[in-house]
Design brief:
single chain, 138 residues, alpha+beta, 2 domains, 3-stranded antiparallel sheet, 5 strands, elongated
């Protein structure tokens, strides 16, 4: 989930999380996907289709409440401003398992179960290792 959002024209903002398997498609009625559509938002002849939201969600907030809703989220790992030093600083004085911490959306936002496994695999760190036992070179 991104901390940034586009300013709403009507004072409302749609926050969504697709989770695993969720996807969306923007198009016309003629070219819509042949899947079960859970939600359809219409914009004239164009529609935004949400498919596979079994675990995901859509929430409509007033623009004033969006920042409050997003305030507890951690930094985004793909933000160009987010550096290795920022990550190491976040790990200072942390305890627990590395995978559990990577999944914590208040620590870093947007890392789910599959991504946390991949991150640990590529780093050569077992997912059940304690943060305290991982040296800085690792």
């Amino acid at each position: 989930m991104r901390k940034r959002y586009e300013k709403a024209v009507n004072g409302q903002v749609l926050l969504l999380h697709l989770m695993l398997g969720g996807w969306m498609y923007f198009g016309t009625e003629d070219d819509k996907p042949e899947r079960t559509i859970l939600v359809r938002l219409s914009f004239g002849i164009q529609h935004l289709y949400f498919i596979g939201l079994r675990l995901g969600y859509l929430h409509l907030f007033r623009e004033l409440n969006v920042q409050k809703e997003l305030s507890s989220l951690g930094p985004e790992p793909i933000d160009p401003q987010f550096t290795l030093q920022d990550f190491l600083k976040l790990l200072d004085d942390r305890s627990g398992k590395i995978k559990t911490k990577l999944l914590d959306q208040e620590f870093i936002v947007g890392i789910g179960n599959c991504y946390s496994d991949e991150i640990c695999y590529h780093a050569g760190i077992k997912t059940k290792r304690s943060i305290e036992d991982i040296g800085k070179p690792e």
